[in-house]
Write a structure and sequence with these properties.
alpha+beta; five-stranded antiparallel β-sheet; about 45% helix
Length: about 750
Amino acid sequence: SLVAWCLFITELDPIKYNLIFERFLNPERVSMPDFDIDFCQDRRDEVIRYVQSKYGNDKVAHIITFGKLQARAVLRDIGRVIQMPYGQVDRISKLVPQNAANPIDLKQALEIEPQLKQMMEEDDVVAFLIKTGLQLEGLYRHASMHAAGIVIGNQPIDEIAPLYYDGESELAITQINMKYIESTGLIKFDFLGLKTLTVIKNACDYIKKYRGVDLDILKIDLADQKTFELLCSVDVIGVFQLESSGMRNVIESLQPDNFEDIIALISLYRPGPMDNIPVYIARKHGKEKVEYLHPLLEPILKNTYGIMIYQEQVMKTAQEMGGYSLGGADILRRAMGKKIKEEMARNRKIFADGALKKGINKETAEQVFSLMEKFAGYGFNRSHAAAYALISYQTAFLKANYRREFYIASMNIDLANTDKISMFIQDARKSGIKILPPDINLSEEHFIGEGENDIRYSLGSLKGCSAYIMKRIVEERNRGGKFKDLFDFFRRIRFFNISMRQIEIMTLSGAFDSIHNNRRQIYESLGALLKLSECGETKQKSLFAEYKADIVELKNVQEWSVIEKLDLERQSIGFYLSAHPMDIYSGFLNKFNITRRKDFNKEKESVTVAGILLSKKEKLSKNGQKYAFLTISDQDNSFEITIFPRLYLTVKEQLTVGSPLIIDADLKIDAENVKLLGTSVKNIDSIIDSQKVYIYLEEKADVDSLYNSLEKMEEGSNVVSFLIKKHNGRKTEIETKYKKNLSIENRKILSSIQGVSFFE
């Protein structure tokens, strides 16, 4: 372990962190040591090429893995073969409960879900489907390549094991899987591509680029105050291993203030050890006394407040109290983990005898052995936890000290993941970082820093836009200068093979706003504009004449309304970026106790939420009644609400996509799952059409645009008083002159004017 640290195979000092060498390799261990090495994912292929060149192509191979027919998959495959309707098979397979940690087979599913049995009794085809599934479940379905495993031999591998080629990998693949390949004499290495390491590396590059700081992530202070303040405030979006909602709840209670706490967090937050989290927290904060079964346990368990968390603590206890060698203690730990009864009985006596020699009575020895036995079953490898805790700390340090650069690196690693991008953008905005919209003359194919603390949105993450094509556009801009106008852009991209759909997405996202401020006009004139990029060299008057294509006439259409623009922007980007439709209602919603998605927590049993309806999926209940799943978007994120039949029947007509809604709901948070069950639904527009609204003007408000807009509004029965709350010298004039109808449509028009907002 020390040699591995000296050679920079790992950055974790095994002496400083008290990592037991015998957990990795010892004379009493019969199996080979196993290095699991995480690499920056961008350079994993480079490592594989290195071992190929060092040991020879014929001595290095990937490892095969076999996909099995599991419960849901077997039903889908059989359904396809016997030509059952896809929708029917999909409904049946979704009745099989899913549990990634402990997969459920078809036999268990039939016991858990009575509807499956009922369907079998009512339909012979369904009965055949499920009975055949019970016979085929568990069989191998296909061969593929293990995600990380590589074997290296001291002779050509085809002389040791049969090989398989899948046509996609440069390397051969063994026909023997991971479980048996080591018995052939080949050594297995796990080369894992970990994207967090890429985020860390890229963030350091951005810090150097934007701040001129050459940060060595291996030399950062592991007691940095800002980092622990960030953790204690649960500002952990993007922090490796610590960002899940369940983990956030634990961090909030724990209030970690040292590196040992992070190691313990990663080890405790797993099935089994989770039961000890409340005790660990209570003891850390002095609410519960720390006790040890014997004084010899104190130095072993002091860091974890008397709780056995790590496998290494089990080994050390066996050594200190039972007289085991550390090698023997590792064998004992393995036997305990596998719960081998004969081994347990034999070792219980060995431990008691060893303890007796150290003057420990039999009763205490029995208690300690039972404690070890309990924890060995799910104790976590401290070496693994410490290595991951270091990465967790590094990401937290970057976020605490170089937040913008951390966000840029995190978003660029997930360019195609809309949900992740949206999450990071909302998080960045909360900390005062401005997200600038995509711009054909300023954006690049990835996210970049701009100004002191802003982030410019990426062209490559627009939905359906090829990162390769966007890169070519940026290269053309760098080569020939910024695009002067639409016509200049379309002429210069004529050889890029860009699709009409990609141009549409760029238009709707606002990427052309800086060179043409009417998105609808571009959108409806695209056919003509694209002809500019097709005309090529054919219109040249002569070989040396200046090429000048005709300037096409754009359609004369009025720009979309603010709400329409935002909705189309959402469709092109995947979420609302430049603004959110709910911003219009912010003043009105102040009178309600609205809970935003980011503020959901276990303490709340019911909430009132407000948001735009993005989608509605109708379903049929067992007794044939309709209910629905609604996807709602507030200013932070989107979430799902279930509306049961009785309520759905009364509110169905209000639930059109794009509607602003206020919904009362019961809230249930179970581990990582958030469930909302709607109890009442109201359309915000229908509530506020008759409300009295006051206009608030900021100092730099565009008063002339406000005048013009008010003049255009027709008189109506819903008369609203306009009270200008703040504007130098013009307050009285506007207040007395204008009493106009402020329908929701008029309100949307006024909300688009700079410096204008509302309150009730």
